[in-house]
């Protein structure tokens, strides 16, 4: 796919871990090395890694050929192979543990490591399969990694706060983790998230900064599920569980060339998460998967809903998974896709615009209807979402990040600088909720209005958009800039998919044209000026380019069906271009 570029930042030599703050509690887990986690001897490639920015394949170097085959499978293929006894659950877990150890050394992506616990469960699963000839469920023997703020019984849930480190050992599993275990998944690590969770990069004062294995010198793997994205990108996990309100699955997936799904609120299990503002429902997140294939997104959702979790978690909607829809049943022969080229606030980095153009060309070549999605009040949406994030004026966040307790990292400071001077009254909170609902209704009407512009007079099937206005964020960039993922997470759901990686040093072709146009345009506002000032193609050389596909609320299956069609069009167009 198109070449990549990004912002220049100060270089760091390796997994940058902050020195402990004087007030820091001794956490139950403070990195793999501190806990004496099992690891493999470093290879020559691993020892050379500090001199390399791109270490994305270094985790493969210590592995045997058979282990390399295992860790490069998606979760669907791995589950099938274990069920067919081509690999054992123990063999699969050992391979991913080896890769995860290298990933931790090079990117600082893990918070809790419990390989021995995972190996005990893997042995149980192997015995069960040997004795009964049956798998226990659809994820039999598949290693699954879990974001730190999701409860895993017996393990810490520090959630990026020093005040919680070592004091939040879970007494039970989150509902999603319980479902995964019963489906045969092997839980073996927890992954880093940022302080407060309100950041599109991953940095806190317990574990330090998590790095992007495509470019450790300059880039973040995203946030708040950045530990997951770094681990999966380095072959340390085939499937991870993250959470998302304003991009916390989608941005990390986009930054690391992965697939991710931020589903509708009320669709996937959400009980058993630890975080600030527990009980606040003015704006609600969603739990979802990060994976290496689109079919793994469906596998995760199908597994989550097979046991009717709405009987345990009342807010969930009783909607069984429809795999036929995810496979494309019921879709029209020719789709109607709208493209958001620019949100009206910050123009996307040139490689993102080039990726959008490439997908547009593929869709048109396949005969699909393509039109422009006009942005709808993105700046207003951002201002509203910040108010909903900080109804108490940021009081709880400030108490947890007081200078003497856990100093605010830059991204925390940035978001809290936007908090009101005082918390909102009940009447003011009610007014904000009315604004939220008015925005949701306006967005629905805007979507319905596309019927007047499509060939067959029906509203578009999906919106294709940047996953963010920038490629992977620079490690010193401010937290803001880029409002493509609007504050409408309760109205629509989004799937992130990877057009690819490339070299920003190739400045010709469509990407080069977009770059010249981008560099020659005058910034429209101060936010865009700041983002453009960071633009340096060589600093983002080799970074992933990711887009997102947006569907209507409660249409996760249909959205994955549309994604399959879009990717089919891309493959066909690429093949035709290659043979021309």
Description:
With 580 residues, the chain is of the alpha/beta class. The chain has 2 domains: 59-325, Alpha-Beta Complex (Amidase signature (AS) enzymes), CATH 3.90.1300; 336-579, Amidase signature (AS) domain (Amidase signature (AS) enzymes), CATH 3.90.1300.10. The protein has 18 helices and 15 strands. The strands form 3 sheets. Strands 2-4-3-7-9-8-13-15-12-10-11 form an 11-stranded mixed sheet, with helices on both faces. It has a two-stranded antiparallel ribbon with strand order 1-14. The protein has a two-stranded antiparallel sheet with strand order 5-6. Helix 9 (294-305) runs antiparallel to helix 18 (556-579). It is globular, with a radius of gyration of 22 Å. Mean pLDDT is 88; it is low at 1-46 and 479-492.
What labels describe this entry?
about 575 residues; alpha/beta; Amidase signature (AS) enzymes; 2 domains; eleven-stranded mixed β-sheet; two-stranded antiparallel sheet; 18 helices; about 35% helix; about 10% strand; disordered N terminus
- Total domain units: 2
CATH homologous superfamily descriptor of the largest domain: Amidase signature (AS) domain
Mean pLDDT across all residues, rounded? 88
Beta content comes to 5-15%
| Residues in helix, % | 25-40%
Intertermini distance: 17 Å
CATH topology of the largest domain: Amidase signature (AS) enzymes
**What does the overall shape look like?**
globular
CATH class of the largest domain: Alpha Beta
The value of Rg in angstroms is 22 Å
Structure classification: alpha/beta
Number of helices: 18
Q: Which runs of at least 5 residues are low in confidence (pLDDT < 50)?
A: 1-46, 479-492
């Amino acid at each position: 796919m198109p070449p990549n570029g990004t912002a220049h930042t100060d270089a760091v030599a390796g997994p940058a871990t902050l020195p402990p703050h004087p007030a820091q509690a001794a956490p139950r887990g403070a990195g793999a090395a501190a806990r004496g986690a099992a690891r493999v001897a470093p290879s020559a490639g691993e020892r050379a890694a500090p001199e390399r920015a791109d270490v994305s394949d270094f985790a493969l170097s210590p592995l045997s050929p058979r282990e390399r085959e295992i860790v490069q499978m998606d979760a669907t293929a791995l589950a099938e192979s274990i069920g067919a006894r081509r690999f054992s659950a123990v063999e699969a877990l050992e391979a991913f543990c080896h890769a995860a150890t290298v990933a931790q050394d090079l990117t600082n992506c893990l918070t809790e490591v419990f390989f021995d616990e995972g190996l005990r469960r893997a042995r149980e699963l192997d015995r069960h399969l040997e004795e009964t000839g049956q798998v226990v469920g659809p994820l039999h023997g598949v290693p699954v990694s879990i974001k730190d703020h999701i409860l895993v019984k017996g393990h810490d849930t520090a959630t990026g706060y020093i005040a919680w480190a070592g004091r939040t050992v879970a007494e039970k599993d989150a509902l999603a983790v319980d479902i995964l275990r019963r489906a045969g998944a092997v839980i073996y690590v927890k992954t880093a998230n940022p302080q407060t969770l309100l950041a599109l990069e991953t940095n806190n004062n317990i574990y330090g900064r998590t790095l992007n294995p495509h470019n450790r010198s300059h880039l973040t793997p995203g946030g708040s599920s950045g530990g997951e994205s770094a681990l999966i990108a380095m072959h340390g996990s085939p499937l991870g569980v993250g959470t998302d309100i304003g991009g916390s699955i989608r941005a990390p997936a986009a930054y690391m060339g992965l697939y991710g799904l931020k589903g509708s609120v009320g669709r996937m299990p959400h009980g058993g998460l630890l975080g600030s503002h527990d009980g606040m429902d003015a704006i609600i997140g969603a739990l979802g998967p990060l994976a290496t294939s689109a079919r793994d997104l469906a596998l995760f959702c199908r597994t989550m809903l097979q046991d009717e979790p709405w009987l345990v978690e009342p807010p969930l909607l009783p909607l069984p998974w429809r795999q036929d829809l995810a496979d494309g049943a019921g879709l029209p022969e020719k789709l109607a896709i709208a493209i958001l080229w620019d949100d009206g606030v910050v123009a996307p980095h040139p490689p993102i615009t080039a990726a959008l153009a490439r997908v547009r060309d593929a869709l048109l070549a396949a005969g699909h209807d393509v039109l422009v999605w006009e942005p709808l009040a993105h700046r207003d949406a951002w201002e509203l979402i910040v108010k909903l994030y900080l109804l108490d004026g940021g009081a709880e966040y400030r108490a947890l990040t007081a200078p003497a307790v856990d100093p605010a990292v830059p991204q925390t400071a940035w978001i809290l600088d936007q908090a009101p001077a005082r918390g909102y009254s009940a009447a003011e909170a009610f007014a904000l909720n009315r604004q939220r609902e008015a925005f949701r209704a306006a967005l629905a009407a805007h979507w319905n209005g596309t019927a007047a512009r499509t060939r067959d007079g029906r509203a578009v099937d999906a919106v294709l958009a940047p996953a963010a206005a920038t490629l992977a964020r620079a490690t010193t960039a401010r937290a803001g800039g880029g409002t493509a993922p609007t504050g409408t997470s309760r109205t629509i759901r989004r799937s992130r998919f990877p057009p690819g990686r490339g070299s920003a040093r190739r400045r010709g072709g469509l990407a080069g044209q977009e770059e010249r146009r981008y560099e020659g345009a005058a910034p429209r506002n101060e936010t865009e000026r700041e983002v453009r000032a960071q633009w340096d193609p060589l600093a983002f050389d080799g970074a992933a380019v990711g887009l997102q596909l947006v569907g209507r609320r409660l249409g996760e299956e249909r959205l994955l069906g549309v994604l399959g069609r879009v990717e089919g069009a891309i493959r066909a167009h690429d093949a035709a271009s290659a043979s021309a």
